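wait is this the right file?? whatever heres the structure
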């Protein structure tokens, strides 16, 4: 991790984020959306591996506690981190983080690409996701999870699907990182941003 900073969301909530790979290769950054609100600890190994090829931003999602939770606040938090990451940033999320990433893209957040690994219950209108999308699942995950990933990729206008052999929902960062890095580089190249 190169630096830890705070950005202020639209409603005034401070959002802590860590930037990995300050000296990484040129090109767009990747913002990792953790599956568990309130902590970025689970995504740290993936961030360190990805930082070898691109800048990575990993932020602490706000807590879901209380009856005042609104997904729009999470969109605003992600938007604040995306502004720090710069134009052409991609977003990746595992599980619930993947569902949030897709919903944010559908809501119009400026993302160049979205990658998701076995996202939980997807919110929002999928046809509104105009970014390129990579939907990934684990080959050793339960059949309904793999089927849901294939169906999700079929519903998205610019998506493709990939299965990682031998992986479960607890995907190994060293297996996921090169797949994600390749996807982000491909999207950047096709957009002429590298």
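ok assuming it is, sequence goes like this
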């Amino acid at each position: 991790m190169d630096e830890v900073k705070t950005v202020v969301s639209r409603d005034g909530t401070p959002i802590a984020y860590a930037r990995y790979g300050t000296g990484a290769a040129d090109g767009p950054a990747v913002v990792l959306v953790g599956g568990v609100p309130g902590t970025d600890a689970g995504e740290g190994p993936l961030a360190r591996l990805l930082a070898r090829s691109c800048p990575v931003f990993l932020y602490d999602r706000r807590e879901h506690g209380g009856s005042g939770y609104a997904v729009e606040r999470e969109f605003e938090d992600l938007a604040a981190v995306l502004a720090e990451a710069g134009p052409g940033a991609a977003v990746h999320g595992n599980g619930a983080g993947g569902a949030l990433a897709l919903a944010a893209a559908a809501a119009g957040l400026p993302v160049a690409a979205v990658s998701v690994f076995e996202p939980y219950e997807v919110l929002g209108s999928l046809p509104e996701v105009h970014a390129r999308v990579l939907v990934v699942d684990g080959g050793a995950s339960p059949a309904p999870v793999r089927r849901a990933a294939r169906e999700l990729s079929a519903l998205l206008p610019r998506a493709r699907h990939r299965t990682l052999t031998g992986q479960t929902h607890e995907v190994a960062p060293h297996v996921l990182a090169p797949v994600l890095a390749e996807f982000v580089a491909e999207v950047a190249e096709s957009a002429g941003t590298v």
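The longest helix spans residues 173-191. so i think its the right one actually
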